[in-house]
Amino acid sequence: MDDDRMLSWLKWLGAGAGSLVPGYSYFTSYEPPLFHGVGLITGALAGALIAIVRLYIPRRSSESPVRVPCMFLASALIFLIAYVAMVRYWTATAPQENAPRFQVGFGKWEAGLTELGLRYKKGPLGSESIVDWMLRETAFCQGGPEKLWKTWSILAAGIIMITAYFIAFVCWTCGFALLAKRSARCETVPHNAG
Prior knowledge:
By secondary structure, the protein is mainly alpha-helical.
């Protein structure tokens, strides 16, 4: 009996951890610019979440056993889409290969722009991209985005991105871990015939 439990636990752990590999590689490829090295934290967080889900004992309910994991995965998808949009509009990367990504404010939103940024937006360069603005001001350097965006807007955009990143990762991890747990539980529970 103990061998069956150990085998079930190992299957569950393998399924839970294996489902995280694509998510982990995605999440570490698109780290928020204000939080470099977050991959180590997300890796540790994944391990902790897998252990928590393994130990979690749900209350009996009439809900479908896959409803909660699917809600987690749907939430992860929504936050991932939002995060990708934020990366597109609230960060900038210089055109050269392997250039670092820089956190900027809320794109061309006037309240977050400095006087220089407002001149760019309202002037003949208003239709250019924020990457072009940064290239004109040689802003692809430490402290460069502050030339065009107010510091509070850069920090606020960064904090929102970090929050969306972590929520998406937590939902992704919990969703797949719960599905793996459900699968392992189904394999160990004998089915009644008839």
